[in-house]
């Protein structure tokens, strides 16, 4: 769903990740030209999902460790 938002409304997709600074940058990039805003939103969204997977993996490791 967020990747769909990245194409339609890039700043909103970035805002749903909870990164305010990236949101402001995405607004600026989207106002200048649409494509840089979309690319930035995709990168931020991908990083959000990667960080989430990393946290889940750490939780699973910690559970099995103790």
> What's the rounded overall pLDDT mean?
92
Structure annotation, total helices: 4
Number of DSSP strands? 0
Gyration radius from CA atoms, angstroms: 14 Å
Name the beta content range. Answer: under 5%
Structural class: mainly alpha
Which residue ranges are poorly predicted, with pLDDT under 50 across at least 5 consecutive positions?
none
CA(first)-CA(last) distance: 36 Å
Tell me about the largest β-sheet: none
What portion of residues is helical? over 70%
Shape: elongated
Task: List SSEs in N-to-C order.
Answer: HHHH
Give an overview of the whole structure.
The protein has 66 residues and is mainly alpha-helical. Helix content is 88%, strand content 0%. The protein has helices at 2-8, 10-15, 20-32, 34-65. It is elongated.
Write a brief caption for the model.
With 66 residues, the chain is an all-alpha fold. Helix content is 88%, strand content 0%.
Offer a few descriptive terms.
66 residues; 4 helices; mainly alpha; elongated; single chain
Write the layout of secondary structure elements.
Elements: H1 2-8, H2 10-15, H3 20-32, H4 34-65
Helix pairs in contact: 1-4, 3-4
């Amino acid at each position: 769903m967020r990747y769909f938002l990245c194409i339609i409304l890039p700043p909103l997709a970035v805002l749903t990740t909870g990164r305010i600074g990236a949101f402001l940058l995405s607004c600026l990039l989207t106002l200048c030209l649409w494509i840089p805003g979309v690319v930035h939103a995709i990168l931020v969204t991908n990083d959000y999902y990667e960080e989430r997977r990393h946290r889940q993996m750490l939780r699973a490791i910690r559970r099995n460790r103790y």
